[in-house]
Amino acid sequence: MTAKIIDGKEIAQQIRGELAAEIQHLKTRGIVPGLGVILVGEDPASRSYVTAKEKACHEIGIYSNDNRLPATTTQAELLALISAMNADPKINGILVQLPLPKHLNESEVLLAINPDKDVDGFHPLNVGRMVVGEKAFLPCTPHGVLQMMARSGVKIEGAHAVIVGRSNIVGKPLANLLMAKGKMANATVTVCHTKTKDIGYYTRQADIVIAAAGRPNTVTADMIKDGAVVIDVGVNRVEDATKKAGFRLVGDVDFEACKAKASLITPVPGGVGPMTITMLLYNTVESAKRANGL
């Protein structure tokens, strides 16, 4: 068996095309979705990520209000900018790129964002709404994983999904979404983590294995059963002298080995990554619609 590759780039482009058409329709009604972006400091990975988000906004017709702040920005200055964005009707979504410089209080910053503009889905109010099954902005990466599986024909209802990783950004919200009642859900979920004894014992039982541990080769071929669906959320840099940059990107899954046993598998790069930005755009459009009673 050789697994079919779930192409995140292709699925992301499909969704972005749907969003672009929806935005054009909204514009005929005088509605332009707007995203406010705040980047504090010069972290190269964050700068690259924010630039990609801004480009994606431009491509599908979302107004992007970009704010690049120096690393010396104070807590008061950052909170004042967020307050201004909360009050700005042109801004439907607010994105504060994480991580923030260490002198800034990340929790206080996230709490300051109006939950109705929290398109990252990190505000405790939106997290709570998600957990109890109310309408909420879903965290972008977990939502992207669900969309990838649904659009690739993965049967989630009744499946046993094992998530390796328990972060607040991926593992925990994804577990809640998969076990919820409704579309793209109704799975039986097991969550493994660094203190789990014999992770392979659980992953070998899984119909769906989702690796979100942040460590290369966390999931190897002997840890999955034949025909499993394997979703790799991890992005890790490993040294590679053959590359100009001196490194290459790999996921948390031993891709080549697992590809020979899985039925479907996501690559790194080109798998889950493109979906994260796409679902941020999706949430921004949803926020604009809600703000206008649609």
Question: Care to describe what's here?
Answer:
There is one protein chain. By secondary structure, this protein is α/β, with parallel strands linked by helices. The protein folds into two domains: 31-114, Rossmann fold, CATH 3.40.50.10860; 140-274, NAD(P)-binding Rossmann-like Domain (Rossmann fold), CATH 3.40.50. It has helices spanning 8-27, 44-60, 75-87, 106-112, 124-131, 140-151, 171-179, 199-203, 255-259, 273-291; strands spanning 4-5, 34-40, 63-69, 93-96, 160-164, 188-192, 208-211, 229-232, 236-239, 247-250, 264-265. The strands form three sheets. Strands 1-11-8-7-5-6 form a six-stranded parallel β-sheet. The chain has a three-stranded parallel β-sheet with strand order 3-2-4, sandwiched between helices. α1 runs parallel beside α10 (273-291), α6 crosses α7 and α6 crosses α10 (273-291). The N and C termini lie far apart (46 Å). The mean pLDDT is 95.
Explain briefly what this protein structure is.
By secondary structure, the protein is of the alpha/beta class.
Keywords:
294 residues, alpha/beta, Rossmann fold, 2 domains, 6-stranded parallel sheet, 3-stranded parallel sheet, 10 helices, 11 strands, 39% helix
